[in-house]
Every structure is written in C-alpha cells, then in structure tokens.
Amino acid sequence: MSCWQTIQDYGLRSIGYGERLLPKTDITLCEQATLIGSGMLWNIYFGILSLFFGFFLACTLALGKNSANAWLRRPSAWFIFLFRGSPLFIQFFFAYFAFLALKKMGIVTWLTSAQAGALLVLILNTAAYSAEIFYGALQALPKGEMEAADAYGFGGWKKFKRIVWPTMLRLAWPGYTNEAIFLMHATALVFFSGFPAWQQRGDALYYANYFADKTFNPFVPYPILAGYFVLLTLVVIGLFGLVNRRLNRHLPNTERQPMKFKLNLIR
Amino acid sequence: MFEYCADPATLEGFQWLTCYLTTGKHMNLYWSILTVLALLLITAPTALAFGFAGATAARSQLLPVRWLGKGYVAIVRGVPDIAFFLFFVVALDQGFEWLRHQAFCPDWTAAIRQGNDFVVCKEAKLPLSSSPQWIHEVYGFFLAVVTFAIVYGAFAANVLLGAMRAVPHAQMETAEAYGMSRRQSFWRILVPQMWLYALPGLSNLWVLLIKATPLLFLLGVEDLVYWARELGGTKTARFSAYPHGDWRMWYFFGLLVFYLAFTHLSEKVLARINQRLLRGQATVGATAGGAS
Asked: Do residues B82 and A188 make contact, with C-beta atoms less than 8 angstroms apart?
C-alpha cells in the first residue's frame, strides 16, 4: 500500500472519515505519521476554540479583578485562584465526573463528550491564566498615558476601548503568547483524563500512545508527535509575533518590546 | 479502625462516614499522599541538579556541549510534558534492559526488536521476574522520578540560565581583576549570587511541579488519582460493606481542594523566603518591603 493511499485512508480518521479499523500489524512509518497528524486536528480544534473564547472571558475577568467593586473583584479573583492553583489534570477528571452526574440527572447530556466538555474546561482554564497575565498588564499601565487620556476628555467606554485595552494587550502580549503555547500543549491531556475517545477518534497523543503500545517501540511515534508539536509551536509564535508587531506599530523602533520567548518558559 | 465499625450496616450518618473514611483502602489513599510528597522531595533536588548541569552546559565554551545544553531546553519547551512522561517511562525501561542485555548476555544472537516485541534475555529483565512486589513498585517510582527530573530539569536549566545572566557583570569583572580563574569566579561569585535571581523562577517551578504530580497516575504509580478512581467508583452491597453510588466526582473534588491548599501554602512560604533573601540587597523589592 502506497503512502498516498494511507493518507487518503487515515488522513481524516480522527474526525470519522476514511478507514474505520486502525492498523494493527505491520505498522509502517507512513501510517504512524498520518494518523498522528490526523489527531493533531483535534489539538488544533481545542487550541483555537479555547483561545478564542478564553480571550474574551480573560479580558472580563482581568477587568473584574482590577475593579474597585468588591462584588466584581472577589469572584474574579477566586475564579482565577481556583483554576490556576489546581492541576488541569484534576480539573478534567472532576469536570468529567461532574458532567457524568449531570447526565444521569438528565440535564445537559452533551457535556460528557470530550469535544464539548473538555473544551469548556480548557476555556475556563486558559481564561484564568490569561486573566492573571492581563491583570498584571492592567497594573503596569503607564500612569502618564491614563492622565493624558483624561486630559483629552476620554472617559468610560471610549477610554477603555482606545487607550486601556490596546495598551494592556501590548504589555501582556509576550506573556500571552507563552500561555497560548502552553494551552496547545495542554490539549494533549484531554484523552488521558477521563474523557473517552469515541470510536477511537482521539488527538495526536492518543494515536502516538496507541502506536507505542502496539509496536512496543516508543522511539518512532513520540518523536513524530514531538515534530508536529514543535511545528505547531513555531506557527503559534509566528502568528502571535505578527499581532505583536501590529500592537507595537506606533512605537519608535528602539522602544518596541522584543518578544522574549526564551525567558518565560513557565506559565 | 474504631470499635463501633464492626458492623457497618447498622451505622448512620457521621459515624458511618468516620468508619467509611478509615477503611483499609482509604488508608492506602492517605499513604499515597506520602508517595506524592516523596516524589516531590526527591524530584526537586534531582531536577535542580539536572537544571544546573543543563545551564552550565548551555554556557560552556565548547560548541558541542553548548548545543547539547541549549537543545535540551529547547526541545522540552516545544513538546507537551505529558508526551515526555509517556515516552520516557518506556524508553528508559527499554534503555536499561538493553544495557543489561549487552552486559549479561553477550552470546545472545537473536535480535532484540522482533517485529512488535522487545525481547531481552531473562537475566536482563528489570526488575527480575523473581523479585518481590515491592521491588517492582520501587522501580516504577524510580522511573517516574527520573522522568520528572529530566522534564523539570529543562525548566530549571532555563531559570538558572536566566539567573546566571542576571548577576551583575561588574561582579564577574571584579573577580577577574582579582586574578580569579574562570572556574574560581564561577563557583565563588556567580553561583552564590545567582540564587537570588533564580528564586522567583524556581518558586514558580515548584508550584508547577506540584501541579504535575497527578500525572504520576499515567506512569503506573498508585497515586492519589488512582485511588480516587478506585474508591469513588460504584460499590454494590455484595462486594463492599460500605455500598455507595458513583462518588468519583466528590473524590476528585477532594483532590482539587487538596492541591489548591498545597499550592497556596507553598506560595505563601516561598514568598516569605524570597523576602528573607532580598534583605540587604539594593533592589526595589528589598526597600519597598511587603511587595513581592
């Protein structure tokens, strides 16, 4: 069987198209690369959707934590503490069993699937981490700029939209890029934490683990997986770098914030 | 545990709960907290040693060594840590067995990789099939420690590298002016000075390490997650004196609270240590007092 044929058979296996049975014997390199790549579709799905929804939730939470009103500040701070202080792995487990209990009661039955339930957990998790980054940026807003905005008669929503929000994003962006990379990596946890893979439609790590179990040789599937993830990381850095350039476009060259990727390895 | 626990079927409410939470299996759950703590206490210094080696390698004057150090840090950054955990446990095991195979059975002619099997001679098996159960468990735990140390060592290497760069250059120049060799100035000036700059990063890493301990479950160690799943599952009256429905949600809620308290406490203690170290340093943090 040629490699092209394998790609046609298994290229979209993770979302349910093509050959139904996974290869069991005489597993070729091409089959491994194709299926693991197919699984990456789910990692990208979880990554993009949770980044998108998490971003707006994070902005809201950061404003809430920065608010002078205790009724807004306390719940936001607690939400952030809750999701940043506990392991994502345990959050997945707890959420899965909680959704299972809800299903038994007959409410929101669709949350037990990974595609919806795990996505929800990832959104809340990344929102908490990003909110902390945005909150830090809000605290670091230059006082002079805010006073200048007041002097020009900016206020309320207009001040937020034109002055506070863009500056906050500009300051937070390097840290936020780091968070995005971590989120992409966190998507690999989904199918190892309670959420079942329906009809063996899993993510990249699910297939890599499948091959490592079947061939008892971890030295092929995991490096393939690593290659895909390094590629994905580079794409994220590239795209976020473009946004960073746009956010900093009004600054003279010398004052631009270089993206310090090396230093913030830890979120 | 308690005397009134002899016949659980007759118990009610709070008494039932105290008996239920002190059954032998629950004792295993509490012991597994010690497993987690032991892992943390062994892994943290080991990872720090790996990190120190990595950071020193990345600063080396020899190009291949420098590449090795930088490559180590870069690869761990690009790939999810869980992939490393799943990879290293099997890879290390096979690596050790392969080494022992070469040492103990030199006259073995058959290939080690036969299709989908990994075959080494009986003497090279780790642990030996004749060894008792606790050796198997300790070996599994040992593999977990090494895996954690390799992954978090890369994180630590990154922190230490940044800290080494943050030591004021003038101090190194002064050391040189006093006639210290490269090695002397490294050990006498750079290493003692870098901890102050490394501490915020290392504190962060400690919390990260705590939050990674549930992944032990994936490495086959009987940790908190394992027992929470075991004990929380539905128990019928036929197999258990304490029948209950699916309580896994509550067990994981308990774990959530445990980890929240643990990370919170750690952050409090580390912030205090940081304040202590900042004393007498000419930095904003030291003069401003409380802020950290």
From this structure: yes
- B252, A93: Cβ pair inside 8 Å? yes
Question: Cβ of A160 under 8 Å from any chain B Cβ?
Answer: no
Chain B closest CA to A114's CA: distance in Å?
Answer: 17
Is the domain B3-288 a CATH 1.10.3720.10 member?
Answer: yes
In whole angstroms, what is the distance from residue B36 CA to residue B29 CA?
A: 11
Q: Tens digit of pLDDT per residue, chain B (292 long)? A: 676 776 766 667 777 777 777 777 888 888 888 888 988 999 999 999 999 999 999 888 888 898 988 888 888 878 888 888 888 888 888 888 888 888 877 777 777 776 667 777 777 777 776 777 788 888 888 888 898 898 889 889 988 988 888 888 888 889 989 999 888 888 888 888 888 888 888 888 899 899 988 888 888 777 888 888 888 877 777 767 777 778 888 889 999 999 999 999 999 999 898 888 777 776 655 554 444 3
The reply to whether B72 touches chain A by the CB within 8 Å rule is no
Q: How far is A158 from chain B (nearest CA, A)?
A: 32
From residue B150, alpha-carbon distances to A235, B37, B75, B145 in Å are 26, 18, 12, 9
Q: What residues pair up with A249 in beta bridges, in sequence order? A: none
A97:B252 CB<8 A? yes
Q: Locate the domains of chain A by residue range.
A: 3-7+26-255
Reduced to 3 states (helix: H, G, I; strand: E, B; else coil), residue B31 is helix
Q: Residue A62 is which amino acid?
A: A
d(CA B284, CA A67): 26
Any B CB within 8 A of A81 CB: yes
- Rounded to 5 degrees, φ, ψ at B123 are -70, -20
CA–chain centroid gap for B81, Å, is 12
Strand partners, B114: B117
Q: May I ask the CATH architecture of the domain A3-7+26-255?
A: Orthogonal Bundle (1.10)
The 10 Å Cβ neighbour count of residue B211 is 19
pTM of the predicted model as reported, rounded to 2 decimal places: 0.86
**What's the CA gap between B65 and A174, in Å, rounded?**
29
